[in-house]
């Protein structure tokens, strides 16, 4: 690599991704993880946790638009949403674009991710002060076990299943989520890299199938995520949400989006064969 400072993510499997760094803005250990924020030449502001890429200024819109709008336009009347994780604020930013949403509970284990995101990534965290957003700094595993609230949509916007995120890839956790999902409710989870982490993808889907009668998958390309093609799990108790797209609401809202649209809503569920087999537990 040429001179200067570089951040390199070890993507395992003998693969690395390096970013040329203009400036290291934050480098600290929180009670839960190592948190770094860099200003990079090519991808703008970059957040890493435990030296793994969480989000970059240049391509975060793909992930956040897919994890938020796919379930919200698949639900007939979404009002109450639960986010597990999501500390950078990007998922909440997309959800508040839907006027029908009355309440967003966000359960983030690490308050420092929110504090640092507000300070260095306002383009992501700007809506964390929205009155509809209620922040809980606690472990999502405990929250879903103990809460009496119920939700129309649950979004698991977590780190990789290591460290604090490990408990979020667990049948008991998914079952507790299912218990607080209202009738007609949808659970969506980030489900890792289809090329780089197939075993983890298989695990996520097999555990979700232990809990939900309907489990489907969609994907999108996020350039700075391992091997680009990132998977999401879409779960519900009846098939209706999978076949429903609220086109009237989509047309009415005229949201200024950069990735998600009517075509993507349909196309993102069309997976390549190897990915279909992985998510269906055949691969
Ligand atoms: N888009 C990113 C990705 O796919 O890698 C995730 C972004 S977001 C920053 C992930 C958040 O999940 C982090 O802020 C992390 O602190 C939080 N998190 C990890 N484990 C958690 C847990 N058990 N309960 C609640 N939040 C958790």
* Proportion of strand residues: 25-35%
Query: What is the number of helical segments per DSSP (H or I, 4+ residues)?
Result: 11
**What is the succession of H and E elements?**
EEEEEHEHEHHEHEHEHEEHHHH
Give, in spatial order, the strands making up the sheet with the most strands.
8-7-6-9-10-12-11
Distance between the termini: 37 Å
Low-confidence stretches: none
Compute the CA-based radius of gyration: 18 Å
Estimate the global geometry from the Cα principal axes. Answer: globular
Outline the biggest β-sheet: 7 strands, mixed
How would you characterize the overall build of this protein?
It is built from 11 helices and 12 strands. The strands form 2 sheets. Strands 8-7-6-9-10-12-11 form a 7-stranded mixed sheet. Strands 1-2-3-4-5 form a 5-stranded antiparallel sheet. The protein starts with a strand and ends with a helix. A hairpin with a 5-residue loop joins strand 1 and strand 2 (16-29). It is globular. It has helices spanning 60-72, 90-95, 111-120, 122-125, 140-146, 171-179, 198-209, 240-243, 247-253, 262-267, 273-279, and strands spanning 5-10, 16-29, 34-40, 44-49, 52-56, 80-85, 103-107, 133-136, 151-157, 181-193, 214-221, 229-236. The protein has 283 residues and is of the alpha/beta class. Helices cover 30% and strands 31% of the residues. Bound molecules: S-adenosylmethionine (SAM). S-adenosylmethionine binds at residues 49, 54-55, 63, 84-88, 107-110, 113, 139-141, 157-159, 164-165, 167-168, 190.
